[in-house]
Specification:
Largest interface: A-B, 38 and 38 residues
Order of helices and strands of chain A: EEHEEHEEHEHEHEHEHEHEHEHHHH
Radius of gyration of chain A: 21 Å
Structural class of chain A: alpha/beta
Number of strands of chain A: 13
Strand content of chain A: 5-15%
Distance between the termini of chain A: 41 Å
Oligomer: homotetramer
Shape of chain A: globular
Strand order of the largest sheet of chain A: 7-6-13-12-11-10-9-8
Chain lengths: 386, 386, 386, 386
Amino acid sequence: MVRIDDPVITAQVLETRLGGEKTLEIPLQSKLTPSALDLLRARGVQVTRRDASPSPAPAPQPASRPGGKKEFKGIFCPNIVIFDGKNEINYKEMERYIEWLIQAGIHGLYPNGSTGEFVRLSWQERQDVVRLICQVNDGRVPILAGASEANLRDVLKMAEFYASIGVDSISLVPPYYYKMSNTSLFEYFAEIARNSPLDILLYNIPQFTQELPLDLMEKLLPYERIMGTKDSSRDLPRLINTMHRLRAQRPGYVVLVGCEEILFPSVMMGASGGTIATSGIIPEVIVEIYERALANDVERARILQYRVLDLINLMLLGVNFPEGFKTGVAVRGFDVGPPRQVMSGEEQHYLLKLEAQISCVLSDMGYSVKGPRACPVTQLPSIVSR
Amino acid sequence: MVRIDDPVITAQVLETRLGGEKTLEIPLQSKLTPSALDLLRARGVQVTRRDASPSPAPAPQPASRPGGKKEFKGIFCPNIVIFDGKNEINYKEMERYIEWLIQAGIHGLYPNGSTGEFVRLSWQERQDVVRLICQVNDGRVPILAGASEANLRDVLKMAEFYASIGVDSISLVPPYYYKMSNTSLFEYFAEIARNSPLDILLYNIPQFTQELPLDLMEKLLPYERIMGTKDSSRDLPRLINTMHRLRAQRPGYVVLVGCEEILFPSVMMGASGGTIATSGIIPEVIVEIYERALANDVERARILQYRVLDLINLMLLGVNFPEGFKTGVAVRGFDVGPPRQVMSGEEQHYLLKLEAQISCVLSDMGYSVKGPRACPVTQLPSIVSR
Amino acid sequence: MVRIDDPVITAQVLETRLGGEKTLEIPLQSKLTPSALDLLRARGVQVTRRDASPSPAPAPQPASRPGGKKEFKGIFCPNIVIFDGKNEINYKEMERYIEWLIQAGIHGLYPNGSTGEFVRLSWQERQDVVRLICQVNDGRVPILAGASEANLRDVLKMAEFYASIGVDSISLVPPYYYKMSNTSLFEYFAEIARNSPLDILLYNIPQFTQELPLDLMEKLLPYERIMGTKDSSRDLPRLINTMHRLRAQRPGYVVLVGCEEILFPSVMMGASGGTIATSGIIPEVIVEIYERALANDVERARILQYRVLDLINLMLLGVNFPEGFKTGVAVRGFDVGPPRQVMSGEEQHYLLKLEAQISCVLSDMGYSVKGPRACPVTQLPSIVSR
Amino acid sequence: MVRIDDPVITAQVLETRLGGEKTLEIPLQSKLTPSALDLLRARGVQVTRRDASPSPAPAPQPASRPGGKKEFKGIFCPNIVIFDGKNEINYKEMERYIEWLIQAGIHGLYPNGSTGEFVRLSWQERQDVVRLICQVNDGRVPILAGASEANLRDVLKMAEFYASIGVDSISLVPPYYYKMSNTSLFEYFAEIARNSPLDILLYNIPQFTQELPLDLMEKLLPYERIMGTKDSSRDLPRLINTMHRLRAQRPGYVVLVGCEEILFPSVMMGASGGTIATSGIIPEVIVEIYERALANDVERARILQYRVLDLINLMLLGVNFPEGFKTGVAVRGFDVGPPRQVMSGEEQHYLLKLEAQISCVLSDMGYSVKGPRACPVTQLPSIVSR
């Protein structure tokens, strides 16, 4: 008999500590993740739940706002989706990856965003991804989930589902494909704000869908559910004006920057944090940029921001979004599987080259990268784990 | 007992001819549409199918290409979706509307296009709309259905479903939201072309998603399933180059224009026809423009093209697409119901004004428009039913 | 002694008919062009002007509007500027070229437009080019000259100069570089319309400067000097709406299309004509397209429009505007000299290849093209001089 | 007799110190500005130049690079052009304004940029403006002058003129109106770099002319005359990449930011300084932002950057560029005269309102603003002269 007291028990945990045992005792409140249940079933392990045992150490409480809500600040990792050989979601590897992110100190998780390829998933898959992430997270960090569904009714349906499984807030892009007038856009967000069970982050990403004008964000301020903005527009003047104008009326208005290259300047100008896909590859460095910026440590923050620039460029350019970021995750040792969208042979070849380059950049930063593609030792000083 | 020999029997037909009868005899092959079945159930009518009866007059055969395929030429009506008070699809009214279109002489039907709001429907709704249209049509005109699903696997799944219910061809826009490189775009269409059970129209609509370059269309020509192009770009120089370049290699390449204002010049330059949303409001006039253009009747075609211009502008401008076109259908006497996308009060007010204006323009054309909003009699000569 | 009775006497005329003579008698009103004067000076020829001689045959009168103004319809050739080895304007070759265009049947001349590289010339050069063209033309065809100067005062100064040398109308793009509000744009054109000594064509070319909206054109209609529109936007729906809306208020409103690929459809929809740079290379064919379109000869006009498409594409694409068109003029036997704007070696190489290709296309059309680059004989039927 | 020892003597200086005297003694090297000469002529004052007198105190030397060149860092003020009632340049008021800027501590002057309306001036006017500024400056601060003329030959001619009168460097936008290929764009800048007598700043301003890609800037690095970049694109990710990529190869590469709203973050990321039009209105504050950023004084720099944001927005939005900035200069007590570009009555009215608003914002900052439009006292703490 093995006894494991962790609040969340994953297949990884079991593989390390179960040994050959066939019975397992766990606390009453502990969560077994999907892959853990699979493993237990596969090995025929019998599970008993202790009742009167001393309660496990309480999980660290995330920072909370008055009213018990979690605070939205720091680095939110926009989560990629990992597929298996059959192009189905690989929940086991995703679980391992999400656990790794939390352990690495990420401040929040963000599934079903642009990095999460929400438009390429089915309605069911979008629900399954978020459920898995909520289970693995088990309340440790706040979760922001994209809820931009095909129509208003489905947005609200999804928000209700998210609320039921422990998501903290939703993010919403303007409807894509068709262009709407600004008055209709206002009505769309206002109607959701009136009915959503969760707080809302307005998500501006003019690269992929129509712009969400700052004037319109201001008009939506009276709705309490509107909690803040996530801005991926690469436009710092606009971000600064967003903070200037909206916080004059609502001082706690959350502003997350979604542009990787300007995390440091944005935080230094007052941004609450960022949704930074690169944090899915080098969480420690991105979290450090945020913290150094908060502490006005300009020298170190600037060095870090410039050192991650090449990595960002490699992952963003020359390949369809978000394949570059998934390649980065692969270099960190996760089996990200095939892309869901088709890719030319030429691009597949490029991705292999990219993997080698990313591997080198990570070595340069001080990460120990193993794997088939050797990387020349360089002279750059390490920026990791200082 | 009533006997009805029509190949397709709708609720409308029954209401006219059933009287108070409780038994109905129909030919073995006749189709009862969904609303017909509803009505029969509601009235408790018993249906028997005659076996050895003289076969009904054969339905008029659509023009066919060698190999039994239907020819894609003339006016394809991009079908709107009609919702009811609960924002569910109103199949009964849609059936009545589709039947009306076919009777009016439209050359083809086109569900799940941009006018059909495909991105606002669920997977199930997209299937239901096309099934209903196939049933009402019953093989009378060719059906082109939009199949731009969330990912490649779902596109092929949908294409197979369409093939199973009698759709003739699919149309495909480039994936929306994310931008893809042109090599990936090629791979995307090529992979579908290799596996689709139906012929494919490449659909260019840069207003709503990324452009489908002419070079890429040319590269896709070797795939037999690529049947043609539907171009809604409003760019006649491009349309002319499409015909010039692709027909030099494949003389029968289909080119449908999707820009209402240039139907006549496009057909005169050799376009196979058009997907013209205005044909859902004034099918006779749009069909006549096409026929006059084919016959080189420049004077009449030009008069008609200019006369429909105000109607097109009213429906396209000042209101979110495709609400203007749905308002036009309402003026023709169909209950199009509420929009699925939310709309500001201001815009709802505008739609009422628009309805009155459209009503006037239709009166001007010679249509007898009834309804609450009176329209001043004008001096313009009628263009209808000459 | 030689006597020459032509109303305009060019160096070309003199070279043919002067022989070795040293005295020349010409009518009192005859014009000697700059190159003619050069030649006479160079050879030391003495000129006498006959006074009481029988007047020469009157020059053919151009079509006129009530009030004696020339009619703006048909094909206006946007004139290139020819430079010499020192990058100065080569007036002699320009004169020969302009004379050739008029002889070829062009309906109007159009210097200082986009094709005429007005922004690359100095104030003085812009005046000199137009003066030369007025002199060579000598009233034979109407002249439209671009007058988009650095500021309003200079526009009016240039318009007055143009009026003094016989230009018929000016064309005006919206000011470039800065973007102006539409109300300022209105004020700009209105102020010019109130003070210009010449009629004005509003020139829309959104490829190069900000769009001139149709609403604004409509607001300018009350100004009598606003004579029409020249639209190079490649947007036929817009061109059609321009004619529909503005001619409803001003039936004689001139609309010239500036998009080469849609000359035929535009004229067929009612355009007054076109400013077609290709008419500087194959004037006879472009003029024929216009005339066939006017005559509703759809079959022949369509054939011609498609036959010139390859030539247009060759000249427009792959090379900085307007170098492709200048290369076309070179193929017709004029020494167009070096470009004023610098060009990479790669592009210079491309131009040589382009010259060979244009040469082939012209051969295909039926032109006899001589020169160093041989062209394979093809099977295409000639379209020239039918 | 009055003796004045200043190195530059303006009309202002004379008005204060001349009194009623009719003779003036000045050092041999002193410069009399145009307005000073006018005043002397008007009053009939006789001027004598002292030869052997003790030399005046040397003018403060600007920071210099090895080789005696002035360093390009800090705040360069993009100079407006002031017109008089006849729409001619008002040299007297410009002189007074330029002197005021230099006294206020601006680090450099920048005539004939976008703020300087270079495309609305004649060739002669562009020369006169820069000559006046050089004379007033008299070597005190570095001068960067725009040299984007109509063609390459004229660019070089202007650069030579600038060199002859003491300009330090030129800035160059890509040619406007026409779009050029990137290879031609390279050839254009390379040809100028090979022949220019002055160093060159590559000026990227995609709002007004075609983009100058970073790749192309990198390709131009081997040319010594290419000294740096002035980037007005509002795109901080691009600015950061510019510094990262180009300084890796040329450590002293100058990067000036031209986007007012991000001066502080840009300098903090390493920008050499900025060309900031707002420095023409509140030079002390803008210079302080730069200095605080250099000193890593994040708190104060952030406060200042946010406090100038409203002023920037007022001047940039709602009015044609650069009229808002000229209105700001007017509030500081200079007679900026009428705009050269026409303006609607509506916009003139707006400018009056704007003037009042700017006046309020300046009061809020702590400036004592006098004038006809009273401004309510507010509660904001002063940011001036701390």
